[in-house]
């Protein structure tokens, strides 16, 4: 399982998942989450972190991971800053709670963003168009992907 090494904390992550012995979540699935738990350089390794899925995530089957689904992880290491080096908090998210079931996952960090960056990613760079519905906006997501949406017909 990979350990994610991060400098301090942000309020939004995206990660891809691979399941252990489960076909429910295909490898490479992007799941945008928001941290529910805060942490700092004073956080102890082993401390639990929780997050929630921020939007419905369609899967290759007709199933989906629903917005609000709980994601559970833990702090794996804390390095205190010394001699001008930055401090680090390492953590991993390794469980997804779906319909009262715990699904083990392996995660890779895709992108991190502050609350402001997350909000900005929901609005087109060219500004909103009064005649175009939100369902048709093209936006740049956290992590750099382009989200081309087409208006529902």
Structure characterization notes:
The chain is mainly β. The protein is 4% helix and 44% strand. It has one helix at 115-120; strands at 4-6, 12-19, 29-35, 48-53, 57-58, 64-65, 70-79, 88-98, 101-113, 138-140, 146-148.
Key terms:
single chain; 153 residues; mainly beta; 6-stranded antiparallel barrel; globular
Set down the secondary structure blueprint.
Elements: E1 4-6, E2 12-19, E3 29-35, E4 48-53, E5 57-58, E6 64-65, E7 70-79, E8 88-98, E9 101-113, H1 115-120, E10 138-140, E11 146-148
Antiparallel strand pairs: 1-8, 2-3, 2-9, 3-4, 4-7, 5-6, 7-8, 8-9, 10-11
Q: What composes the largest sheet?
A: 6 strands, antiparallel, barrel
How much of the sequence is in beta strands? 35-45%
Structural class: mainly beta
Our count of helices gives: 1
Shape summary: globular
- Low-confidence blocks of residues: 1-22
N- and C-termini, Cα separation: 43 Å
Question: What is the alpha-carbon Rg in Å?
Answer: 17 Å
Strand segment count: 11
Q: Mean pLDDT, rounded to whole units?
A: 75
The topology string of helices and strands comes to EEEEEEEEEHEE
Give the spatial strand order of the biggest sheet.
2-3-4-7-8-9
Helix content: under 10%
């Amino acid at each position: 399982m990979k350990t994610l090494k991060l400098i301090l904390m942000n309020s939004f992550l995206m990660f891809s998942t691979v399941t252990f012995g489960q076909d429910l979540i295909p490898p490479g699935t992007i799941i945008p989450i928001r941290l529910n738990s805060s942490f700092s350089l004073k956080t102890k390794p082993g401390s639990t972190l929780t997050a929630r899925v921020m939007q419905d995530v369609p899967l290759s089957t007709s199933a989906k991971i629903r917005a609000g689904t709980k994601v559970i992880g833990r702090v794996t290491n804390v390095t205190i800053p010394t001699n001008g080096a930055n401090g680090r908090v390492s953590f991993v998210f390794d469980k997804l709670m779906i319909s009262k079931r715990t699904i083990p996952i392996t995660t890779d960090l895709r992108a991190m963003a502050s609350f402001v960056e997350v909000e900005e990613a929901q609005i087109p760079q060219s500004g909103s168009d009064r005649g175009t519905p939100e369902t048709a906006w093209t936006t740049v997501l956290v992590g750099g992907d382009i989200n081309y949406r087409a208006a529902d017909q």
